[in-house]
Amino acid sequence: MVSFDPRNRQLRARNFRHMLMTLAICGMTSEIPWSSAGLAQQTRAAQRQPGSSAALNQAKKLIQNGDPQGALALLQRADLSASDAADIHTMKGICFAVLGKPVESAAEFDQAIALRPNYAPTYLSSGLAFASFDNLDLALARLSTAMRLDPQLPGVRYNYALVLSRAGKFEESEKNVDLELANKGPRTEPPLELWRLKARDAYYQKKWTDTIDSYGKVLELQPDWAEAYAATGEALFSLNRNHESMAALTKAVSLDPGDGSSHLFLGRLYQDAGNQDQALQELEAAHRLRPGDREPIYRLFRIYNGKGDKVNANHLKKELEDLLASNRAESDSEAKAIVLNNTGIELEKNGDFTAALEHYDQAAKTDVTNVVFQRNAALLLCRMGRTQEALRRLRDILSLDPDDAETLQILAVANELAAGTDATKKQALPPAQASHF
Questions:
Q1: What DSSP string describes 147-188?
Q2: CB–CB of 60/34 below 8 Å?
């Protein structure tokens, strides 16, 4: 299974820093309103420190104008004995985070929390600061505290879900997005952003029907978004809905011709349909756009070899060998794939089907030349009742090797299971095949 890497757009550090600036500008980090007053006039004889409330307002304005260093310099002179000292520490924490200084930022937020331990906005800002430095565990701890203290705080659940997704906790992220979508209260983010996050969470969980439905909602709000068509196309491909998949993927590459992943899926569909010329065109595009990806190279090799074009076949075979040898970490791909496959078998025996399927998929991606791993994945999908996905995997194998006897045997059983005529046919499925060094 090839994930759509161009669309893997989990938030980067700078995105969270931008959110911090937005929070500061909107006043979510404190209850102090905006002020348009300028800095107090200073005299050479006796420079008066600006009032702390005025300093906070001026600092927000400086951050808005892209000057966190100036805001920090102003806050350093503010009166920390005043009643709003916690807000000053919070704003300094934001400034340090935007300036990329994690230790100083954390120290300021800790002081703010010590002064006001039950104030949810400080935990929200602190959580985003930690997220901006990729300290996701602490970010989640602070954001969860903010949500516990004030579940209705605008932005808190959405940002919590964002960080959960970035941490790979897609199921929990999706649950929080669903709660936010159901929430009728005020929010800081538009529905489009919530549906985008939900769609990506569903995609990474391989919940293909939910992926299609959620990206459908996204397209209602943002038509002609290439990512939505690409992800929908992959989901339809995985569900063996080939014609719909081809339509979505064709739309995706028309909107984003540089999307190598969608070209690859189109190549696989055309190869399965026996349209080798169109498959070559799409696979060549995928290879050009993803030169380090072994799958399009191997598929091109099989097509050219089948056509008797030894010149191109040999060139691609050497390219694949060179690619494996060029990176020591990848040179033992066969051994890595065997370990992944055999671990998947043990996980399947223990009833952890989700982890087993992930291991089979990783093995198939690590060694694209060995069909055993895809076959084991197809067998497991049959046992899980996901027969259309199993059929897709089996047809993918047969597009490379139409005479693979074991795959044809499993395909016959899978077709009967998909027809729903006899559920006992699962017993006729062979066991997963172990690999050996």
A1: HHH-TTSTTHHHHHHHHHHHTT-HHHHHHHHHHHHH--S--S
A2: yes
Two structure tokens written together for 324: 């494996």
| Residue 238 sits in the same domain as residue 268 | yes
The Cα 209–Cα 222 span in angstroms is 20
pLDDT at 52: 65
102 with 132, same domain?
yes
User: To the nearest 10°, the Cα dihedral for 365, 247, 6, 202?
Assistant: -80
At residue 27, does pLDDT exceed 60? no
Among 432, 338, 422, 434, which residue's Cα sits nearest to residue 379? 432
Residue 38's pLDDT band, with cuts at 50, 70 and 90, is very low
SS3 content of the chain, % helix, strand, coil (to 5): 70, 0, 30
In this prediction, residues 123-130 reach a mean pLDDT of 93
Structural domain total, the chain = 3
Nearest to 54 by CA among 82, 93, 13, 15: 82
What are the tokens at 160?
A: 């919590």
CA angle 178, 179, 180 (to 5 degrees): 90
pLDDT tens-digit readout, 204-246: 999 999 999 999 999 999 999 999 999 999 999 999 999 999 9
pLDDT per residue over 260-300, tens digit each? 999 999 999 999 999 999 999 999 999 999 998 999 999 99
For residue 33, the model assigns a pLDDT of: 29
**Planar angle of CA 8, 12, 17, nearest 5 degrees:** 150
Q: Are residues 286 and 357 in the same domain?
A: no
Round the CA-based radius of gyration of the chain to a whole number and report it: 27
Task: Provide CB contacts within 8 A for 54, sequence distance 6+.
Answer: 35, 37, 39, 40
Q: Which residues contact 411 (CB under 8 A, 6 or more apart)?
A: 391, 394, 395, 398
Quote the pTM value. 0.81
Residue 76: both structure tokens together: 């350093």
Angstrom distance (rounded) from CA 236 to CA 194: 22
- Any idea which of 35-39, 75-79, 171-175, 255-259 has the lowest mean pLDDT? 35-39
First-to-final CA distance of the chain: 23
Q: What is the pLDDT of residues 387-413, one digit of tens each?
A: 999 999 999 999 988 889 999 999 999
Are 241 and 277 members of one domain?
A: yes
Q: Check which CATH number belongs to the domain holding 24 and give it.
A: 1.25.40.10
